Target: NAD(P)H-quinone dehydrogenase
Amino acid sequence: MTHVTIVGGGPGGYEAALVASRLGAEVTLIERDGLGGSTVLTDCVPSKTLIATSDLLTEVGTSAELGVQLPKDVRADIAAVNARVLTLAQAQSDDIAKRLTTSNVTMIDGTATLESAGVVTATTADGEVRIETDAILLATGAHPRVSSDAQPDGERILTWEQVYNLQDLPEHMIVVGSGVTGAEFASAYNGLGAAVTLVSSRDRVLPGEDIDAANVIEAVFTRRGMTVMGNSRMASVERTGEGVRVTLTDGRTVDGSHCLLAIGSIPNTEGLGLEEVGVALNEHGFVHVDRVSRTSVRGIYAAGDVTGVLMLASVAAQQGRIAMSHLLGDAVHPLDLGKVASNVFTSPEIATVGLSQQQVDESDLQIDVAMLPLASNPRAKMQGVHDGFVKIFARRGMGIVVGGVVVAPRASELIHALSLAVSASLTVDQVADAFTVYPSLSGSVAEAARRLHRLG
Ligand SMILES: Cc1cc2nc3c(=O)[nH]c(=O)nc-3n(C[C@H](O)[C@H](O)[C@H](O)COP(=O)(O)OP(=O)(O)OC[C@H]3O[C@@H](n4cnc5c(N)ncnc54)[C@H](O)[C@@H]3O)c2cc1C
Ligand SMILES: NC(=O)c1ccc[n+]([C@@H]2O[C@H](COP(=O)([O-])OP(=O)(O)OC[C@H]3O[C@@H](n4cnc5c(N)ncnc54)[C@H](O)[C@@H]3O)[C@@H](O)[C@H]2O)c1
Model:
């Protein structure tokens, strides 16, 4: 029986453990902080739970338009919200532990180091455990990047892992970094009723996202009272008695009550023994892998954020599953990033799948694009939804759908039709021909597809 040792219990690690066990391997999983990893305990699950409350309050804010008068001081009890966030995260971690137990995975609560490609050591509360193994999967994730001039104190200068200890809503949250993490937290605290300043080093928010989508989000942020500072790079953050001061590289300062650092992630490679074993890192310090998750050392695989491939829970899980299928001789489909669906949980959300506008603009492919604002959608009007659009990219000729963007409330759900189209290489006509409910926001997905119909 093949023995595989998995380091890290996030989606990259635990999904791999479940697949490996199903394929007949003996599986040991070493995790130092808690099953579910950062995904469940500090990153994805907690932030989306916080955003659920923020979304509710944002919706309440539109009640007058729909004819409902609510008291002006409807607000969240942050201590209760954060307690709920942490309880839900722990419950999900416990569920994962149960699934792994049922699948006969041996779990070790400890910190792993590689001795060689065939030996892993786990340092636990009871001492060291030496594990001889046939293969290793590294799924150690990443941690928040901080700067020596902006040291988190867990009280007012915070990483995204620390915000759930707050007992009160920050009066004025300064979010540094306008990538997906920064934009989501800026949106969340704005929705919860805090004053928010978003410090963006680039000329626009969400530099990695569809430019039309980012423009909608920036316009909504500004309309809802957020201060968005473009071309503004944080140099330092310091405590000022009852608040914080962020100093920018051009000397300007911003004062607030709290500061959240969302300036990227660092892969968890330190102390793993990778250099000694010969596992190659890329120029950004991530573990180099191929499309079936192999590292430079035979028998050692890697999955998830530690590889820096596309830092999403879904991609981490897929890389982990692919690694185990490859190791254990099951059919392998190499990772295909061209079909990944993802979502930015701002209000409204931005969901994307397949080719992006930037890839379309830079490629030689002949692509037709249709973009339809939601404002003309009957359901959107009924629900008081004013912002958002549906965009579809299709190959000229056959009309095969190769990508799409939806900006809307719950875009994460609406994108599935386009994700299915991209995954199954459906044509715009097939998407347009499928019935949609009247009235519904998904009617705009079909209508955008219809606009790409060409006379045969
Ligand atoms: C704020 C935020 C929100 C996000 N929201 C989403 C989202 O909505 N959707 C989405 O798809 N993605 C989201 N992401 C990205 C997603 O969280 C990551 O892509 C995902 O966590 C990667 O999973 P992983 O298994 O690689 O690592 P992790 O989930 O980080 O797990 C790695 C685990 O390895 C453990 N570990 C590390 N070193 C060792 C060692 N030496 N020994 C033992 N254990 C070790 C760590 O303790 C950790 O538990 C978000 C990220 C952030 C920062
Ligand atoms: N909903 C989701 O799926 C979700 C949510 C959060 C994060 N993630 C993933 O995690 C990964 C990391 O995203 P992220 O937003 O944490 O990091 P990021 O690296 O994408 O963004 C960090 C931003 O901070 C800026 N920055 C760095 N130093 C700065 C400074 N001194 N002053 C001002 N700005 C500064 C950078 O220019 C960059 O735009 C992404 O791949 C993302 O997709 C996904």
Remarks:
- Residues 137 and 223 are 47 Å apart (CA to CA).
- Residues 176-182, 184, 199, 201-202, 207-208, 233-234, 262-265, 311-312, 342-345 surround nicotinamide-adenine-dinucleotide (ligand 2) (CB under 6 Å).
